[in-house]
Structures are given as C-alpha cells and as structure tokens.
Amino acid sequence: SLSQAVAGGGGLGGAPPPLAGTKLNKVTQLTGFSDPVYAEAYVHVNQYDIVLDVLIVNQTADTLQNCTLELATLGDLKLVEKPQPVVLAPHDFCNIKANVKVASTENGIIFGNIVYDVSGAASDRNVVVLNDIHIDIMDYIVPASCTDTEFRQMWAEFEWENKVSVNTNLTDLHEYLKHLLASTNMKCLTPEKALCGQCGFMAANMYARSIFGEDALANLSIEKPFNKPDAPVTGHIRIRAKSQGMALSLGDKINMTQKRPQKAIGA
C-alpha cells in the first residue's frame, strides 16, 4: 500500500513529488509502529463506494493465526462484506481490501480492530485497536450554478440551517471569500462586480451539489473595520440544506479548515 503510493512517480529532475500530488496524502496510519501488528490504509474514493487497501505487517516473531480485520462504520456508510481471516508468518505482511458503500454526503467514520491468535499460546484472542478513518465530504461535493430565483426558493424551502462564526487570521474580505470557496468546493453566485471595491462589508451567496443530488446553499456575511487594517475578518456563514447531515457536515468542514493556519490565496 505505502510502497505503491510512493511509486506514483517523481517530480522534475528525479525529485520526489509534493505530498499533495501523490497518493501518500490518502494513506492513513491505523496502528503505531510499536504495536505487534502494524497497519495502514490507502483510501480510494470512487464516487459511490470507498475501497480500503489495508497493509498489515506482523512485527512479531510469532505466527498469527486467524488474523482478522474487523471494521464498522458510523454515518451513511455500509461495509459490503467482512474481510476474510489470514495467517501471517513471523515478520510477514499482507494486503486486505475492504469495500464500503456511501449513500449520502455526511461525515462518515470507519473504525475497527485487528484480532488474532498466537500459534501455541493459550491466551485469549489479541486485539489491536485501529485509528479512525474520517471520510472527507469534499470528495462528494462539486461547485454548481443556479439562478437567483432558484436560490431564494431553495433557501426558503430548506429546513436545516447551520450558522458558523468566522474565525480567521485573514485580514482581507476577498481573500477570506477565496479561502472559503477553496475549502468547501462551493461556487460564488454573487457577480464579481458586486463584490469589487473596499467598503468594509461583504455579502455573497454560494452553491454546491453533491454527487447524490443533494443541494447545499451558503450565505457569507463578513465585515472589517476601516480604522484597523490589521484586524481579522469577522462575521458568519449560514448554511442551508434539505438534510441535517449535509448542513452539519459542511459546517464541520468549515470549522476544521478555520482551525488550521490560513494563508492568502494567489490570484
């Protein structure tokens, strides 16, 4: 799994490619290096299903009998079938694939254990708890367009609203809008000429759809005092959706990106 990801090709002059340009940023470490069984998963998102390619390494001098990858899900995810048990010789490894079906744009978590018996030991089954795998909803959301009339109609109809406060170190209104659009895969419906200029206030409507046909609307309302050029942008984002899962997931995504250091995005 990891070696396959690394073999994705080098950059210019044989230099390694940046992390974001390789499959490495899709590899999740599931156990610690000091655990008797080491595991990591390459998460391959293919629209309506997720394939987990899990590398399992026996780091002990014992033969592991009935080594089983046990997985469970939270959210609108469903494990297609349970992976079959394997036998791992001392310091041996194997790859196990697991398929998970995705039914909606909702924050999903895959969790579980690796259980095994040690050959010749009389003790109970051994258990190694895996780190959670969090599914990124941005893999399922794409920018979309609609008219002002359609936006207002959906805004009035959608019953779920999530209000997120702006928490940023950015000091420019336009830069924050760019950052938000890049973080959420949404499209700004407000014309550029309505956003240009510096008046200390900005309001913009945004729209996106999921591959499952779910609509997501957002209204950005931010401000910045003229007399404090170094003050950060303040305000809020109102998200509306037909389903609670979509509204909450998009809000969680915005909050998560706001916790990380934010840099101005070049034009």
Automatic annotation (TrEMBL):
Places the protein is found: Cytoplasmic vesicle, COPI-coated vesicle membrane; Golgi apparatus membrane
Residue ranges annotated for the Coatomer beta subunit C-terminal domain, each copy included: 22-117
Cellular-component GO terms for this entry: COPI vesicle coat; Golgi membrane
The keyword Signal is annotated on this UniProt entry: no
The keyword Signal appears for this protein: no
Span of domain Coatomer beta subunit appendage platform: 124-254
Main location: membrane
InterPro entries recorded: Coatomer_bsu_C (IPR011710), COPB1 (IPR016460), COPB1_appendage_platform_dom (IPR029446)
Membrane topology: Peripheral membrane protein
GO biological processes: endoplasmic reticulum to Golgi vesicle-mediated transport; intra-Golgi vesicle-mediated transport; intracellular protein transport
A GO molecular function held by the record: structural molecule activity
Superkingdom per UniProt: Eukaryota
Keyword terms: Cytoplasm, Cytoplasmic vesicle, ER-Golgi transport, Golgi apparatus, Membrane, Protein transport, Repeat, Transport
Any Pfam family matching the protein: Coatamer_beta_C
Entry protein name: Coatomer beta subunit appendage platform domain-containing protein
Species in which this protein is naturally found: Graphocephala atropunctata
Upper taxonomic lineage: Eukaryota, Metazoa, Ecdysozoa, Arthropoda, Hexapoda
